[in-house]
Amino acid sequence: MLKLDRLTKSFKNRNAVNAISLDIPEGQMVGIIGRSGAGKSTLLRMLNRLAEPTGGSIIIDGRDITALKGRDLLAWRATCAMVFQQFNLVGRLDVITNVMTGRLYHHNFLASMLQLFTDEDRARAIRALDRLGMAHTALQQADTLSGGQMQRVAIARALVQEPRFLLADEPIASLDPLNAKIVMDALRTINQDDGITVICNLHTLDTARAYCDRIIGLADGNLVFDGAPEALTEAK
Ligand code: ADP
Ligand code: ADP
């Protein structure tokens, strides 16, 4: 169980995320919805401490994530894979190398300096790409791919990290409807087949309804809805 307790992030005197408390059982696929500026991105980024909370706590396995430092913080980050709206691939590198960077969480720094990737990393990267239907692009330069293909590569990179949580920040906002469906189907499959908890910021309610077990609604940093998609339909 991932537990948020009055989690808050303020910028100057405004709360981007305002005292949000939530229990997220593992294995769920959670959609966070809300208008631009509602606090979705800030909330998601606090979960792996890309953004520092200014109040409240995040508890996992009885430990407060907001207090972790150094090695412990890195170990936590390794368990949270991120997928971004703009994919965040290294365009000049080939696809397989981009995916293998997800393995760096499992290397110690010196080993990484001496020999960056192992045959095992390569094999895992190919398997992950294959699951996403992207193995044939392994040796292509990443910036030659379409947006939909880039996002599938980014998901493969997340998978080889062997995460416990997959945090997706507007993963389909830059994609056309067909590629959006391919990417959402892939996230749902990973959630169901691998048991990875997926927390996904989405700007359209229809997508959250179609794919998520649970919808969390934010407005101006406040929690305004938390429930099953069916409950949302009834409320409207
Ligand atoms: P969303 O992801 O729902 O679009 P964000 O979490 O990006 O919302 O932003 C929530 C609010 O916090 C917005 O008002 C935004 O302008 C503000 N904000 C986000 N990041 C920063 C920052 N680094 N400095 C100041 N304000 C920020
Ligand atoms: P999105 O809407 O896709 O979440 P934004 O345009 O809100 O993206 O934010 C892009 C980046 O700018 C983020 O890193 C966010 O933290 C930062 N940011 C957003 N709003 C502000 C702000 N008012 N002041 C400073 N930085 C901000």
TrEMBL record:
Protein keywords: ATP-binding, Cell membrane, Membrane, Nucleotide-binding, Translocase, Transport
Organism listed in the record: Pelagibacterium lentulum
Family (UniProt): Belongs to the ABC transporter superfamily.
Domain called ABC transporter: residue spans: 2-236
Name of the encoding gene: phcN
MF terms in GO: ABC-type phosphonate transporter activity; ATP binding; ATP hydrolysis activity
GO cellular component, one term: membrane
Protein origin, superkingdom: Bacteria
Name assigned to this protein: Phosphonates import ATP-binding protein PhnC
